[in-house]
Amino acid sequence: MDFSYDDRTLAMKNSLQSFLDDDIFPAEHILDEQLAATPDEWGTRPIVRDLQTTARERGLWNLFLTGEGGAGLTNLQYAPLAELTGWSMRLAPAATNCMAPDSGNIDLLQAYATEEQKWRWLAPLLDASIRSSFCMTEPDVASSDATQIATRIRREGDEYVISGRKWWATGAMNPEAELFIVMGKSDVDAPRHRQQSMVLVGRDTPGVTIVRPLTVFGYDDRDHGGHAEILFDDARVPASNLLGGEGEGFAMAQARLGPGRIHHCMRALGMAEHALALVRGRALGRETFGVRLADQGVIREWAAEARIQIESLRLLVLKTAWLMDTVGNRQAMTEIQAIKIAVPRAVQQILDHAVQVFGAAGLGPDHPLASLLAGARALRLADGPDEVHLAALGKAELKGKK
Amino acid sequence: MDFSYDDRTLAMKNSLQSFLDDDIFPAEHILDEQLAATPDEWGTRPIVRDLQTTARERGLWNLFLTGEGGAGLTNLQYAPLAELTGWSMRLAPAATNCMAPDSGNIDLLQAYATEEQKWRWLAPLLDASIRSSFCMTEPDVASSDATQIATRIRREGDEYVISGRKWWATGAMNPEAELFIVMGKSDVDAPRHRQQSMVLVGRDTPGVTIVRPLTVFGYDDRDHGGHAEILFDDARVPASNLLGGEGEGFAMAQARLGPGRIHHCMRALGMAEHALALVRGRALGRETFGVRLADQGVIREWAAEARIQIESLRLLVLKTAWLMDTVGNRQAMTEIQAIKIAVPRAVQQILDHAVQVFGAAGLGPDHPLASLLAGARALRLADGPDEVHLAALGKAELKGKK
Amino acid sequence: MDFSYDDRTLAMKNSLQSFLDDDIFPAEHILDEQLAATPDEWGTRPIVRDLQTTARERGLWNLFLTGEGGAGLTNLQYAPLAELTGWSMRLAPAATNCMAPDSGNIDLLQAYATEEQKWRWLAPLLDASIRSSFCMTEPDVASSDATQIATRIRREGDEYVISGRKWWATGAMNPEAELFIVMGKSDVDAPRHRQQSMVLVGRDTPGVTIVRPLTVFGYDDRDHGGHAEILFDDARVPASNLLGGEGEGFAMAQARLGPGRIHHCMRALGMAEHALALVRGRALGRETFGVRLADQGVIREWAAEARIQIESLRLLVLKTAWLMDTVGNRQAMTEIQAIKIAVPRAVQQILDHAVQVFGAAGLGPDHPLASLLAGARALRLADGPDEVHLAALGKAELKGKK
Amino acid sequence: MDFSYDDRTLAMKNSLQSFLDDDIFPAEHILDEQLAATPDEWGTRPIVRDLQTTARERGLWNLFLTGEGGAGLTNLQYAPLAELTGWSMRLAPAATNCMAPDSGNIDLLQAYATEEQKWRWLAPLLDASIRSSFCMTEPDVASSDATQIATRIRREGDEYVISGRKWWATGAMNPEAELFIVMGKSDVDAPRHRQQSMVLVGRDTPGVTIVRPLTVFGYDDRDHGGHAEILFDDARVPASNLLGGEGEGFAMAQARLGPGRIHHCMRALGMAEHALALVRGRALGRETFGVRLADQGVIREWAAEARIQIESLRLLVLKTAWLMDTVGNRQAMTEIQAIKIAVPRAVQQILDHAVQVFGAAGLGPDHPLASLLAGARALRLADGPDEVHLAALGKAELKGKK
């Protein structure tokens, strides 16, 4: 359980830090301008393309990808890099092609896709020439309980026919999102966790309708492809578009979510550090009633609490990464649940305090705090509400499993 | 300290409830349609006008106004009505002409305006033929500390010349907002709380520029006039536009804020009751892992905690209203501070739990929860961050002042 | 819902305040000396007797008793008096004969006892010539669930035979506690809430063994009769010692607990005010690192939060009392549950902060804080753990029952 | 930053676990009996002596001592051992001679004592043939601010004369505590942190009076020597009893407290694990209202939260130990402050929930929970109230120091 950074990690961390300082932070206002110039478009903005080019040149590409085709880092090595990308949530993950949900989809395809599927979808994703979305959540059922999924995937001849309604398909508003990985039930009579399958559905498949974009709080998250409601009305795909085997959908989803959760947590720590840096600047530069904010007891208390939370949770994230690297995602289940619950809410609290330090400015568009707060809040529901994980973790704990 | 509803209150409460059921709730989707049809406009939508007509016919107009020209209710009588309007934050306050910031501005004008000022501004505000904004917060200073205000109001001949930058001027994006009440310093050499004055500035005054709209957690709050940044660049108004006397700005602002705070709290309780009603519906209609949400321990705990908070804080709000009615706003200072701190954060917590019960749907546009949560969060900063009030309340408590 | 103090309440409140100032507070060190002089005895100390004499002379006797034989106050009238007694938990309730569990036992006897039972037990209790204990909790079952009670009360001829083990029988270590009201099952085949009965058992009944005193944290609570474990080993009492009817035990217990809970809450508010007064004195008189405690942000915040909690919860207690007076204990169930949950934990938090302000002194014997904190903590379990009440309250809320 | 257990640690951990299972846990009831047999004595009980003999035989002696004379472990190696001793706070630390305050005093003496002082005091402490106490806290000043210390140490010829009043001298009620290390001011005109000195004062020194024992939430903590108030009334010791140099008292105190704090935290984690194990047993064996506690949502939530807290804070404790081992106590200041704040309060919360699961039994003498809760609560004040550390940590954070 050695959490020290090895030489390669240190080198990449320095390189990534330079990339942030030299290219990404200065690009944020360019992104704003490009978004403002074409307010109705959902596609990837030119500045992101430019940064992607630079990232590739700097060797900062597909950092999350533990196996071939990526940077080949362990989760433990990736952790500090992912955290750094959390300092610029709008640009850094996209620039390094480490952005959800594409990163999770890439993991899935690398693990389960056929050679043909890889050629068709994985290769362009690794190259960022297309984007993708993951279609799991449904409006009409509690999707944290996969047995309730209502979307149906039925075999007809050499095709699968998909019918159902999905929403919160992140990234799907981007027209470059050519691939939808759709989870549905292929056999409702099979055992509970063998009923689900996944199919690869092209954006242009007849029967696929992008119904509308959704907002998180008031944000449409246009800068990373938004969140779509999608109707699948007897959409037909070749049988060869099945991902993995029939009935393996639940297991594949579980396998996909573990890394996804830890990546969210790593980035969230970067969000928190960023917020704390902003607070520091504000608290040193403002005063109320004759006392500098940095000298006020309550604000000092908040800063101390933030530091304590970040330090302890970062270690837990690192331990989780180390467990995933050494004993596998399944054996790291308890820790993945723990960080999935603990990190987003701690970061939400840190951001909430940061907003309070910034006053009304903290609610608005001039600082990233409100947007980050909305994102951290959403993480408490992403991949299932925290309470589902708390219940599972508590159940295991009371059985004496450890 | 009798909190029972008297006959008049009960009658108006029933009347308002009918108005909500018959007219306002059904109108919400019409508002959505009208907003969608003209996405770039900031003006009052036709449906609001229609509801205002109905409200007047039903005798539900200017309910907040304790003195002449309004419904003539006490704060205690108004409390349950304001709470009811919190069930439809987008329509009910506007329909009954009880919407912030106009309600506070009307209070101010009624108390301090000259006859001419009343004729020019108060009459149309009472009639809802114009709207108004209150320009206090500034981007460059901690505006909770009124002594830091940077906007200058200088006398030149028979004019006042205003220069400064204001933001979070709620309602000001609405072109019907013809009146801006601007707080600034008219004499920086006067004692700390005698430096400030207020002037009435017409929207069309040369030198007044609406710089941009602001967002609260991504929401532009277009349905009630948004929040503007406004530049006053040597804007000139006749000397007769001074509200009250020179140097009385601070005292008038304090006087304005007391009622404003309690109105926010009353409506926030309605928001919480509304959220709880939504939770009830959801919890009875959904299940996860074979157990109905309403039968799950954690959700029951949330509902119980919400009920406890609402019941105890409603009583504190009523006591505050009763004190304002009987001994005056100044003597109710402790209680006003207490509810200003306690109600928004309790309601924020109730809404946060409600979002969690709704899952991803709670974050999005199909339910009012995310929008209400953003609004409750913003209340913790409106009229000064909670911490300023906590410090003042604690200071008084430790002096033994009760 | 009028919470103003009427003339009688005001007069009694003033009278009780004088009694506290003149007699009770000065008597606290005498109690300490008398306890130190006879460390192994459990009986009522002479100073308590003296104060009881004074209380009777001052007309401050049996204040809690709403019906005949007592002061004849409503719950609403009693509330501020009970709160005042919370300023001296060791002496004031005992001095005024308003001490748990005797007060609850008196209520029970007055409602359900036969004339003979009243003559034998109620009269001396009203007179404080004896004391009593209530034997409900059992070591082997979760006693919040009355259907689990293991003590058996069986009829044999004209006797009842009681066998079972009880503990946390408050007051029972005092040899003057001549009466034990014992809850047990008389018919295990009856419907769930008709199985229980109560019998009156004299301390000297053969088969009754005081097993040992218990401690709450490290306190033996010797000053009010301690808490006993009691073994009933085929203890026989005349059939006429049945209280109420067979099978009515559960209903009687419920009836007893409502007033008991609100009395606890009223006194707890007095504990909190007392703590806050102590904090005020400490904070004004000490400094650390050059800043007076009263001027430190975190301590101001605690004081403000305490004031907010006390003000809002006091109102909820008053509303509960008013409901009990006007519509009855049953109809006040939601509110009784709410205060039972909310008041002790708020007071625990206030006391916890007060201890922190006092530093190590707050943990020890020189201030009442640690002892009060232990008492407030115990209230979260008395009459059932909070979670049982939270679950019931939440269940009702989610049914839409209001 | 490698937190894996090395071979030596693993071997000692196994050995210590066997000692606990074989000897210590079975001895707890013997301690109870011995305490009950001689309720008025403060000395070390025979069973502790017996266990000490066994510990020495097993090579489990002075485990905490990093340097010569002890087990020679690093802090990182000691951490899991100290945690294990937290499973039996009454016996394990004493049995292994790792008990506060002797362990801290031993550290001090080893670092600063002269050869003669070592021979006289350190040798018997290492051997457990005497015990010791640390006299820092004073009743009349906020002792977390060392500049306020009122005790005076004045040089007269070849003697130091000590006058002052100390309390919370842990262990000092034990007559075997032959050594008091007393902190006082030797030069009030020196710079703020150079005014303090420490002297070694024998228990039998004329002028030393043990005034009284103190209680922590009613516990006299007799099993580890209690907490004494001590009066030093011109107590005279030879000048050679000065520890370190004049004016070095503050620096020595700081040096002493770092390891003391981390040891408290390590043991506190063991207390939490112990509590959780007790909860597990209770939750599996009880039911209320027909549902096993282990299947109730709220209790699962508590168990999950406990696991999350323990896992994340243990890692932070290990990191702190590793920093102390590698870069020194001074460089680990931030982390020591962080765990000092975070661990006791988390453990307090875990114990509070555990008490709630146990119901009234959790408050009493049959389970260690109430006693552990009192101990954890006291830790939030030991070595200075948390708020002092929070303020310092927050101040550093807002300076950008990291």
From TrEMBL, chains A, B, C, D:
SUPFAM superfamilies assigned: Acyl-CoA dehydrogenase C-terminal domain-like, Acyl-CoA dehydrogenase NM domain-like
Location of the Acyl-CoA dehydrogenase/oxidase N-terminal domain: 29-127
Cofactor dependence: FAD
Alphabetical list of InterPro entries matching this protein: Acyl-CoA_dehydrogenase (IPR050741), Acyl-CoA_Oxase/DH_mid-dom (IPR006091), Acyl-CoA_Oxase/DH_mid-dom_sf (IPR046373), AcylCo_DH-like_C (IPR036250), AcylCo_DH/oxidase_C (IPR009075), AcylCoA_DH/ox_N (IPR013786), AcylCoA_DH/ox_N_sf (IPR037069), AcylCoA_DH/oxidase_NM_dom_sf (IPR009100)
Domain Acyl-CoA dehydrogenase/oxidase C-terminal per the UniProt entry, residue ranges: 247-396
GO biological processes: fatty acid beta-oxidation using acyl-CoA dehydrogenase
Record carries keyword Flavoprotein: yes
GO MF annotation, one: acyl-CoA dehydrogenase activity
GO cellular component: cytoplasm
Positions of the Acyl-CoA oxidase/dehydrogenase middle domain: 133-234
Signal peptide positions (record): none
Keywords linked to the UniProt accession: FAD, Flavoprotein, Oxidoreductase
Pfam families linked to this entry: Acyl-CoA_dh_1 (PF00441), Acyl-CoA_dh_M (PF02770), Acyl-CoA_dh_N (PF02771)
Domain of life of the native organism: Bacteria
Assembly notes: Homodimer.
Family (UniProt): Belongs to the acyl-CoA dehydrogenase family.
Name of the featured protein: Acyl-CoA dehydrogenase
Organism: Subtercola lobariae
UniProt lineage: Bacteria, Bacillati, Actinomycetota, Actinomycetes, Micrococcales
